[in-house]
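ugh ok fine here u go
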Amino acid sequence: MENKYEITEKQLAFLEDYLKRKYPNFQDEVRIELIDHLISDFEATTQNGNLSQYLSNELGFIRRFANRRVSEFKKTYGKQTWNHFFDFFTDLKLLPISIAVFSMFYFLAEKLNNKWLWGTFLILQSVILLLSAFFGMINKKKLSKVDEVKYLGAEIWLPFLMIHLADGFEFKYFLMSNSYLFTIYASFAIIYGLAAFIVLRKQRKIILEKYKHLLN
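structure:
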């Protein structure tokens, strides 16, 4: 039976250095996972032990692996935001906030004209966006290429997009023609924005703690 090829210490060091140079934004655990896979596949498939040639052939897989990790970050942030969004309707501590938001928008829809109503909606959402930018985003140059940081806060833009789409397609006038419909639409945007802000703050704390060795 033919013996399985075993990667050498020199090749392992080359592989680790190669991935660090080509993909410096990979987390340690992600890099380790990728290295384990590449080593296993290389040892099982190589005919001549040429690691450089193997890596050249596997560039497509490595890129797909990197893209998959990015997609996982996006899904994680999105899932966490939706979970916190639903908490506003199931958590007794957060439920009063939801009731207050719905009540406020219904009152405003009944009392204000369209110009002031939409302007108030825009201002409130802008406040959440500014709070997210100042107290949630990570403006650290050393972490700028880390995927967790690059996609942090992506969910905060959905409510703002809702405003601009309704404004651009003049859908806002239809919304404001019905107090109940506007209340639901505006409340959803604000509460989702608050949920995204909560996730942003939590993830910011986790990321800064995780990568504090890079900031010292």
